[in-house]
Design a protein that fits this description.
3 helices, CopG family transcriptional regulator, 80 residues, CopG, mainly alpha, 69% helix, Arc_rbn_hlx_hlx
C-alpha cells in the first residue's frame, strides 16, 4: 500500500469517525472502499460509453461479411 494524505471537511471527518466506530472498521478502510467504488463506477461508465459508441456500427451492413466469416471459423473449432 501507498501512504496518501487527504483533506476532509470537519463534517466529513466527523461522519467518517462515526461510521468507523459504528462498523468497527478503520477510517482508512472506509476511504479505500469508497475509492474502489468510485473507480468501479468510472470504469462502468467508460464501458457504457464504448458500448454506446458502438451501437449501430454496422447499420449499413459494412463488415457483416467479415463477422459471418469469423463466426463460421469459430464454429469449426471443436470445444476442449
Amino acid at each position: 500500500m501507498v501512504r496518501t494524505q487527504i483533506y476532509l471537511t470537519e463534517q466529513e471527518q466527523s461522519a467518517l469517525r462515526t461510521m468507523a466506530g459504528n462498523t468497527g472498521r478503520s477510517q482508512s478502510e472506509l476511504i479505500r472502499e469508497a475509492v474502489d467504488r468510485l473507480i468501479e463506477q468510472a470504469l462502468s461508465n467508460d464501458r457504457g460509453q464504448v458500448l454506446g459508441a458502438a451501437a449501430g456500427l454496422w447499420v449499413d451492413g459494412t463488415g457483416r461479411a467479415d463477422v459471418v466469416a469469423v463466426r463460421r471459423e469459430a464454429d469449426r473449432i471443436e470445444p476442449r
